[in-house]
Fold:
Amino acid sequence: MPITRTIAAPLTLVAAASLLLTGCALSTPADNGVATPGSTSSTLIQLDRPEISAHAEDEAISYPITIEHALGETTIVEEPQRIVALGAVERDAVIALGAADRLVGAGVPFYDDSVNPWIDDLVSAEDFVAIPWDQNAQYNIEQILSLDPDLILAPTSFTISTDYATLSAVVPTIAFLENPITDRWQDVTQLTGDALGQPARAAALVDEAESALSQLAEAYPGLQGKTVSFTVAQGGDAYGVLSDVNDTMIKNLSDLGLSVPAAVEALPENPLNPGVSDISIEEIGAIDADLILIAHMAPDAETATESSPLFDALDGVKDGGYQSLNLLAATALRTPTALSLYWGLNTISGTLSTVADK
Structure:
């Protein structure tokens, strides 16, 4: 089957919304990623991403290296020169570690657009091949192997449990630590650094990002004790609410002093999508919080939400704590990486400022 670089056949918005709720990173068509802002105060903070070296730092690590993960052990005989990263967290880690020149392919589940705005100053679309999903939400194994990789990184790939046996029989392949959905970006970044022989630099990237969260919390002390809800408007009258207090996104926001409202925690979970609760517009009162984040999968979904009197009645909306997110901004927050974390938090900084000042 020939390799193509066309947009994958479109999957439904409901499927995209489901993956966003589970934390699977999505790539989107080009847009500016700017979400609808809240009003801002004079204390607006924008986080600065650390400088990224164009070349990997030499940590004098000797190969072979053996990496343990949930699906086995992977031995990397020599320093990888042709890397495929099937998940966004590991892709961004490779770039942040200064190994972008060795990245030959990157997974992009929905669109042939692997260059998000938080990395577009570091790489271009011509630097590596975008690997989209097919109509069955699967990667083309032949396309991956045709890139002649000597390492496949897939700890946050939604399909690696299915693909691991085939890929690892040909190329050293690294899967998830515990679960491709719930593994923390910090751990995946460290795993990537270990595989690339840069454990110290990977640890530094994690420390820098966590320090940025602390900086934001110090700048907005008024967030302490406030609440936050994250919802995906899936189209029609369907909304998915993130109700898992142990979710990576919620944990990041909790570092700022925010917590999930009791009403959200009390919502019944979807048994097919643990940690997510399904509601209709009639139940939207359950997501009321000081900070209300709603990812809208299409313009008509945003219109449907914001035209509802029930939405207008939410205290968080009346107090200026609501922000509508496009898919790009929602993905940066929902599936943070060592690079997207800064960009995602900056998209909601104005609303954070408003909430902190209440």
